[in-house]
Amino acid sequence: MGMITSRVLQNADIAALERLLLDAPQYNVFHLSVLSESGLGGPTWAVGVFLDGAMAGAVMASRGTGGVYYTSSDEQVLDALANIVRERSMNGRLALLSGHSSLLDPFLPLVRSSIGGRMDRCDFCVLTRPTPQAEHTGQDTAAAGAPVSQSAPRDPQWRSPRMAADADMERLIDFYLPGFYSLARLPTREAWRDRLSDQLAFRTLFLIEDSEGRVVSAALSSAEGGGAAMLGGVATLDEYRGLGLSTLCVGALCEELFAQGVRSVGLFYLKDNVPAARVYARLGFKPASEWLLVPMGLGIVFG
Predict the structure, then answer these.
(1) Virtual torsion, Cα 227, 71, 269, 296, nearest 10 deg
(2) CATH of 147-283, one of 3.90.1170.30, 1.10.1740.10, 3.40.630.30, 3.40.50.1970
(3) Strands 228-236, 215-225: parallel, antiparallel or unpaired by DSSP?
(4) Where in the chain is the domain with CATH 3.40.630.30?
(5) Which pTM was predicted?
(6) Residue 186: pLDDT band by 50, 70, 90 thresholds?
(7) Cα Rg of the chain, angstroms
(8) Residue 258 predicted with pLDDT over 90
(9) Which of 14, 17, 28, 96 minimizes the C-alpha distance to 63?
(10) Engineering a disulfide at 223: which of 30, 189, 210, 241 sits with its beta carbon 3.0 to 4.6 angstroms away?
């Protein structure tokens, strides 16, 4: 039986924490992205659990949303992680646990008393960058896991997908502010400006405009780190749905991420979001079990 210790991690611990998270970057891309963008401190915290002096697990959160990762299923390690989750959720520092089912399903029985509301089980899918061999031989890229190339229909109503820039800020706020089914809703233009400023500075966003320059469809990477990315913010205005614009936008975004060196792109969506499932299947995303969203402690108060 090894010696278990735990402590709050500081910026000096980031290298060790990243080594732990890089064991499964697609499951930890949110944490890796935050570490590369802003490090620890302020709204971002992490507590590490050590087995005989080596980091064997960690709980990390930013702005109340966090996750748990562990490389050892040692009972003492899991108990220590559960204690951290219970304490942080009860004092309001952890409102939502977000993570892959392979990590959270074995862990949730240990923190059941701290779960604050209904858990969402989302479908999780992954798209992998095509191998050089697949590209060289002309192998079907959809079968290899790469996005199917989507060329924009020739229609004067809209323009081809392109990467967003700072100059698009106000039109992007106009697009996202009214809200879309299953997407985050922020209350004010200033809140969206703050969120989209970080998006344009650190991550990637693609948009499609109509002939008058109005944003009618968009998709973004909600996290990028460790050679992985997670997609989100995929939406199309009601009057433009059913025309394949989300498929075009996501396809262009994935191609750009792969060109930047990303090796895998993941995403999750609510199980009853049938239109989203069709878009991602068309682009070659493969099912990879489930992603769980679990309100913790005060999380039920904040929705």
Answers:
(1) -130
(2) 3.40.630.30
(3) antiparallel
(4) 4-120+294-302, 147-283
(5) 0.88
(6) confident
(7) 20
(8) yes
(9) 96
(10) 30
